[in-house]
Write a structure and sequence with these properties.
Elements: H1 17-24, E1 29-30, E2 32-36, E3 43-47, E4 50-54, E5 59-65, H2 71-77, E6 79-84, H3 90-95, E7 109-111, E8 117-119, E9 124-136, E10 139-150, E11 159-162, E12 165-168, H4 169-182
Antiparallel strand pairs: 1-11, 2-3, 2-6, 4-5, 5-10, 6-9, 7-8, 9-10, 11-12
């Protein structure tokens, strides 16, 4: 159990970062790999900090750590692709999650109309033109306008992240149903 913490009104004692991470880990998210760059400069990184912002205009945002190896690639290319992963792509998620990340050439991919790498086996993708950047503490918030999209594997189950672990939505729901029936 994580004890209740409060920064108080004077904000002298900020909430502990690890506790914040643990509490936010109770919010299930989809798993994405953000890709960007051209040819030899292409790269990717696993993130779960993605959200749809607006339908008109079509805007989404992602957050990248300020020390992310992908941040300067996105800034240089002027865009990024959000690849939503299927539950069969857990290895891909972990491969792009580490400091010594996988290389784009190591996974099946193709190029979007804008020339950015798209993971070919992803559940869905959004190709985004970088619109703006905002300071987000130790992260940079990147706002992108969706210029191309697709859902080639929409019939597949998504990969989700919950309480610090990659999970499969359907098997976790089946387990929960079994647990509830047994109770």
């Amino acid at each position: 159990m994580i004890p209740v913490q409060s920064a108080g009104t004077e904000r002298r004692n900020p909430v502990d970062g690890r506790a914040l991470r643990d509490v936010c880990g109770n919010f299930a998210t989809g798993v994405t790999v953000i890709t960007s760059g051209e040819k030899d400069d292409a790269g990717g990184t696993t993130v779960n900090s993605f959200t749809s912002v607006s339908l008109d205009p079509p805007l989404v945002l992602i957050c990248l750590h300020q020390n992310s190896r992908l941040l300067p690639v996105v800034q240089s290319s002027g865009g990024f692709v959000v690849n939503f992963l299927t539950q069969q792509q857990e290895r891909v998620a972990w491969a792009f999650a580490g400091r010594d990340s996988a290389r784009i050439e190591e996974v099946p991919h193709h190029r979007s109309d804008a020339g950015l790498p798209v993971l070919s086996e992803a559940l869905a993708f959004l190709d985004c033109r970088l619109i703006n950047e905002y300071d987000g503490g130790d992260h940079t918030i990147l706002l992108g306008e969706v210029v191309e999209l697709g859902a080639p594997a929409a019939e597949e189950e998504p990969l989700i992240f919950f309480q610090g672990a990659m999970r499969e939505l359907d098997s976790d729901l089946d387990s929960a149903a079994d647990d509830a029936a047994a109770a």
